[in-house]
Amino acid sequence: MTMKSRVGLLAVALVFGLASGLAMAQEAGPTIEHTPVTQAQAGQPLTLTATIHSGNGVFQPVVNFRSEGGATWSKVPLLPSGGGAYSATLPGANLTGNIEYYVEAYDNDGNGPARAGSPETPYRVVVASTSSEGKARHVTAQTATGGTPPPGELAAEKKSGGMGKTVGGIVGLAVGAAGLGVGIYGWVERNQEVSYSNAADPSARFAYQAPITNFLVLGIVGTSVGVAAAGVGAWLLWSGLSSGSGPSSEPGSPASPASPASPASKTEGGGFSLAPVPGGAVAGYSGRF
Fold first, then answer.
1. Residues 51, 53, 58, 64, Cα dihedral to 10°
2. End-to-end Cα separation, the chain, in angstroms
3. Contact 124, 117 (CB under 8 A)
4. Is 230 helix (H, G, I), strand (E, B) or coil?
5. Are residues 124 and 39 in contact, defined by beta-carbon separation less than 8 angstroms?
6. CA-closest candidate to residue 173, choices 245, 219, 244, 240
7. pTM above 0.70, yes or no
8. Dihedral sign for Cα atoms in the order 121, 125, 129, 133
9. Quick count: other Cβ atoms within 10 Å of Cβ 19?
10. What is the tens place of the pLDDT at every residue in 82-125?
11. Which residues, in sequence order, are CB contacts of 61 under 8 Å at separation 6+?
């Protein structure tokens, strides 16, 4: 085979390869670039975007979606917004629970579908509820900004704080009693050691100095700790009981009923001012009695 024949065959093979590649590219359909959305708010519209490239135009780009695990897919068209970008908005009425979706498109020759996601492996969107979570966020934000939480939360917080102080007061009193007991024991033992020392021979009194000192320190420390703990415990107990049983001063608590207005009110000098009375009549007196 001559060199010329070889070059000709190579050119034919090259042209055939290019044509096959172009045909395969066209048959593959468009390409889709999409960043999955993973979270949404219940009852709020959800906008999904994608970029679709095709050398032969884009035909019927859609978002297929369903309730998570559902059997039926619904379609929302992707509308062009320029530069190969497309967007679709899922109605808020369809976002009552988690959903699944995938993006799909053909080219103008019907090649495809090209997909981002698929019916077998769709993208999953977690839809957050606004009932309990929104209420919790509202209460948290209101408290953080200095607002007043609802009366029920104030009552629960007040009751919890009162219970904690009551328990702390009881513990404080118990620690104080124990400390006072140790202190009294130290003082009694110290006095007893002093008596033993005074009754002993002068040469043997040095043996009582160490116990006397130890019991003296024990008496001072025990008494001091006992008095301090008892004082704190008493204050906590009083504060806790006051918080738990005091009258409610929360916003929204029913106010004392106002006394009904008198049909006529007495003015300075013994006169009476005009005031409406039942039945729509107006009564009034003047002068002195």
1. -40
2. 145
3. no
4. helix
5. no
6. 240
7. no
8. positive
9. 10
10. 999 999 999 999 999 999 999 999 999 999 899 999 999 999 99
11. 50, 52, 77, 78, 86, 103, 104, 105
